[in-house]
Design the sequence.
């Protein structure tokens, strides 16, 4: 019966999705907690002030690349911050570096990478991100022979969320900063609220979608199809690059999909192209870069992300295959550290936050 087959498929997808959700839940709690601490104890004003003091073509890009990595901003949410950075005197290269390193990785996405994949990918991801951001920034600074000028006409826009911001992309809404003399208890409370209400709420829809899509991939798509067409090589990586560039997707939400594809036989390097290109490139970001930094900067931005994604994808495959690591052993190799009871409890505790996040998004539409 067709109805019985359909029910079997739905049940199978739900089971796969729930198993995946249990794996990521404890690490999401850890990642969001650290994100809350960073948000409260490392204020945006100090970050912008530090990055705004340009120290040359190399150092300005390096500062932006390093400081963007742990920050829990992604998609269009990073655009107002990056443009504010530019308006306060940062070089164009530093601005592009920040636009790449910040959405491509963060404490939450690093935690979920460790949960779903392995230590090699967990370390490789931020290193590749920082290198991509640094090379892009240096390239832009070298090619920009003219004096840097402030974006005077756009100051008002920088005080608001980007106008092209999507409701389903994360970190789109700014928060009111705490007073500098606020008590420790107030800061901790504000950090927890930011992490588990605002930030988690912003990505809730996409996180749920990504876990369900990963469940569909795991249960429905035959291993032979992924292994044959996306098993590795330049062509496979180019396909993932084309898929990843236009998507509105966070670094955290992209990880379950990549893990599911790897478990089906996709090479880790091919999946990594998606992880590196997807979060930093989308219609909103490209539009804003073109408008405020110019067509040349937008071209450098896209070209460097594409080239670095492919290069690091090939390098990652060479590392795994050179070490003789089986693809099937990559996914979930770190997941046995925690007891099953902790995973289940974390998943159950996380559900109310995700439900509220979806409700919050719907209410603001």
Sequence:
């Amino acid at each position: 019966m067709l109805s019985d087959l359909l029910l079997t498929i739905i049940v199978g997808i739900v089971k796969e999705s729930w198993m995946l959700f249990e794996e990521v839940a404890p690490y999401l709690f850890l990642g969001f907690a650290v994100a809350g601490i960073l948000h409260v104890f490392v204020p945006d004003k100090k970050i912008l002030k530090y990055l705004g003091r340009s120290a040359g073509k190399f150092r300005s890009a390096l500062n932006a690349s390093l400081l963007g990595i742990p920050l829990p901003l992604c998609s269009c949410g990073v655009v107002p911050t990056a443009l504010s950075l530019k308006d306060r005197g940062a070089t164009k290269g530093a601005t592009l570096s920040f636009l790449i390193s910040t959405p491509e990785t963060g404490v939450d996405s690093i935690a979920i990478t460790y949960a779903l994949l392995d230590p090699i990918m967990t370390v490789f991801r931020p290193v590749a991100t920082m290198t991509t951001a640094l090379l892009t920034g240096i390239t832009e600074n070298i090619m920009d022979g003219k004096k840097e000028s402030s974006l005077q006409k756009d100051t008002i826009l920088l005080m608001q969320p980007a106008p092209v911001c999507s409701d389903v992309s994360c970190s789109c809404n700014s928060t009111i900063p705490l007073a500098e003399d606020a008590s420790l208890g107030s800061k901790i409370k504000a950090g927890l609220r930011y992490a588990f209400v605002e930030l988690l709420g912003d990505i809730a829809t996409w996180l749920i979608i990504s876990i369900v899509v990963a469940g569909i991939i795991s249960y429905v798509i035959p291993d032979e199809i992924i292994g044959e067409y996306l098993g590795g090589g330049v062509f496979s990586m180019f396909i993932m690059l084309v898929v990843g560039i236009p998507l509105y997707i966070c670094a955290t939400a992209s990880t379950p999909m990549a893990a599911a594809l790897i478990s089906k036989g996709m090479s880790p390097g091919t999946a990594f192209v998606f992880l590196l290109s997807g979060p930093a490139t989308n219609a909103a970001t490209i539009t804003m870069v073109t408008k405020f930094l110019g067509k040349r900067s937008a071209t450098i931005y896209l070209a460097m992300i594409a080239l670095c994604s492919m290069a690091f994808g090939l390098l990652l495959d060479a590392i795994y295959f050179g070490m003789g690591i089986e693809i099937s052993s990559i996914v979930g190799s770190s997941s046995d550290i925690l007891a099953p009871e902790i995973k289940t409890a974390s998943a159950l505790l996380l559900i109310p936050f995700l439900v509220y996040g979806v409700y919050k998004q719907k209410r603001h539409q």
